[in-house]
Amino acid sequence: MSQISSLKFWMANLAKLEFAALDFSGDNYLSWVLDAKIHLRANGLGQTIVDENDASPKENAKAMIFLRRHIHEALKSEYVVVDEPLVLWKALGERYDHQRMVTLPRARYEWTHLRFQDFKSVSEYNSAMHRITSLMRLCGENISEEDMLEKTLSTFHASNVLLQQQYRRSCFKKYSELVSCLLLAEQNNELLLKNHQSRPTGSAPLPKINTASQEVNATSSRGSIHKRGRGGKRGLARKQKRSWCSFRGFRSKERSIHEWQKCIP
């Protein structure tokens, strides 16, 4: 039960941390130093880790509490007798400052082999660029905007030589300006590709006749046919009637002639 309580207490303290605590291995020492400096300055305690400072005992105590809260539990045990923030700061520096010598060669290697053409998207390349340059700057290596621009433009794929020349003629002064243009071009290319895939070239549907016009034409045609049909029937009836009347008249004449002949002596 006591182990569970201590674990909960540790998790509660971890949630209150302003940034990740210094690991016992020191792998995150460079980023930890930067975060610690920023937060100490923000709290008005930046002078407590500077040589020959005039910080008050209260300020030193606050800085010490802050530093101990942001280091590994094992480090707290090792430096339990240290009660001055400047002393603890220097002790940690002597212990882990070699991380600069370990990190810098690796960052230089990654910078040398960084190529724009090796990444599937501009965002992935941009993330790698910032990660590598940040490590190099933490180690004291200066990477300028011109270096970042040249690294990007010089590592375009060979099939994009014309595009590379166009970007060079734009004379960008900042790496961020070039990345913005690359991101916009990438989005436009993706949109064009999606439009092409949705309906390949030459597959446009045939134009459809207006449905309303079809209905009007069909109605007109049916009316005309119906009228012609009715008129035809009436004409046929008239012809039949005339024929019948003619036949009756002929029969009447025939009877009259017969009666007349009977009267001749």
What would you say this structure looks like, in words?
The protein is mainly alpha-helical and 265 residues long. The chain has 3 domains: 2-97, no CATH class; 100-197; 231-265. 69% of the residues lie in helices and 0% in strands. It is built from 11 helices and no strands. It has helices at 2-15, 29-42, 57-69, 73-78, 85-96, 99-112, 122-138, 145-153, 161-169, 175-198, 211-262. Helix 6 (99-112) runs antiparallel to helix 7. It starts with a helix and ends with a helix.
Mean pLDDT: 79
Low-confidence stretches: 253-265
Q: What's the number of helices?
A: 11
The helix-and-strand class reads mainly alpha
Helix fraction, binned, reads 55-70%
List how many beta strands DSSP finds: 0
The main pleated sheet reads as: none
Strand content: under 5%
The radius of gyration is 49 Å
* Number of structurally distinct domains: 3
N-to-C SSE series?
Answer: HHHHHHHHHHH
- Overall geometric form: elongated
Distance between the first and last residues' Cα = 156 Å
Short description:
The protein is mostly helical and 265 residues long. The protein has helices at 2-15, 29-42, 57-69, 73-78, 85-96, 99-112, 122-138, 145-153, 161-169, 175-198, 211-262.
